[in-house]
Specification:
The protein is of the alpha+beta class. The protein folds into 2 domains: about 90 residues; about 45 residues, no CATH class. It has 5 helices and 5 strands; from the N terminus they run αβαββββααα. About 5% of the residues have low confidence. This is TAFII55 protein conserved region domain-containing protein. It comes from Giardia intestinalis (strain ATCC 50581 / GS clone H7) (Giardia lamblia).
Length: about 190
């Protein structure tokens, strides 16, 4: 076995993506158990072509795609026996495959939103409108920072209490004895 063959089978060299297919291609994949394809990336790694490895009725052999970063990392799990699951990858990219003559509206919307976002940030006016900060794939970032966008007077750096200077160690027996004393005081 050559080193290149070993790299093909190496677990660390595998990449996983979320893939969105056009309806006709997705239907063909559901109907044919032998459906096979491969992705050919361009030099930037942000777009490329999906090549179907077999000829299917009413389908082209080549479809273009674009890669988008997801706002969050998604974990992928596999199972050998259905009982125990093992984490296999962190997925942070989504591939959107489209038909060459039907460019999805979300690509146009995404490009417009990126230009508006760039212009507003260059003008010193960050935009927090959801339509401008949209993700083309529908995945949204967590809302942990939403209060800071809605109420800008909230400090972004929370104030912490100063650390305690004296350490106090309380054992389980002391806690148990204290609870008994409190219960006895209530009865009297």
């Amino acid at each position: 076995m050559t080193s290149i063959d070993m790299l093909k089978d190496d677990f660390l060299c595998q990449e996983q993506y979320i893939v969105e297919l056009p309806d006709v291609v997705a239907e063909a994949a559901r109907r044919n158990p032998d459906f096979a394809f491969e992705f050919v990336f361009d030099i930037t790694g942000q777009s490329g072509e999906m090549h179907l490895l077999r000829q299917y009725d009413n389908l082209l052999r080549v479809y273009p795609f674009r890669v988008f970063k997801t706002p969050l990392t998604t974990e992928s799990y596999v199972s050998a026996d259905g009982d125990y699951y093992y984490k296999s990858a962190d997925i942070s990219d989504m591939i959107i495959v489209y038909e060459p003559d039907k460019i999805p509206k979300l690509f146009v919307d995404y490009e417009i939103s990126q230009k508006v976002k760039l212009i507003c940030s260059a003008a010193g006016n960050p935009v927090f409108d959801p339509s401008v900060n949209m993700s083309p794939h529908g995945l949204t970032p967590p809302t942990a920072w939403a209060p800071f966008h809605l109420w800008p007077n909230i400090p972004t750096r929370p104030s912490y209490f100063p650390p305690a200077t004296d350490e106090v160690v309380v054992t389980f027996d002391e806690i148990h004895t204290d609870k008994k004393n409190q219960a006895g005081a209530k009865i009297d």
